[in-house]
Amino acid sequence: MLLLAAISAGLSACASSPASKIVVPENLQVPAAQQFLAETNASGVQIYTCSTSKTDVNKYEWSFKAPEAELFNANGKKIGKHYAGPSWESEDGSKVVAEVKARNDGPVASAIPWLLLSAKSTSGNGVFSKVSYIQRLATEAGKAPVDGCSKANFGSELRVPYTALYRYFTAA
After folding, report:
1. Which domain of life does this protein belong to (predicted)?
2. pTM for this structure?
3. Backbone phi, psi, residue 78, to 5°
């Protein structure tokens, strides 16, 4: 009975957290055979490089290079990092490399898109070694500016701060 009360209290705490109130768009839903594994808050930067435009070689634009962020649990304790790949690596040594399956602009126009990603590979023995899907939600900022990239600063990098919520899922 004590265990049931503890589980109930834990679920109530999760249900009242702001993260649980996020409405996940239909195209970012994980398959039915998945179950929730963990959730982290990310704080870091999206790195862009000034390069020639994909549509006009006489113009320049900021192109996405990689993310660089620290991952925190609900208590604010650093538990890992997120970087190029895209990769998520836990301090327990486990790692997941994923690929984008779906995007959604999300509710904030100035923020990077929300994503659904699926694992391409996992390694180690820990929480991220069990991940099969990841959702990037509740993004704030992180978009490249529309200007400021020119022939004069071709090849330069720009680091744009962002935050996001990552939810991890595993096969049931």
Report:
1. Bacteria
2. 0.85
3. -65, 130
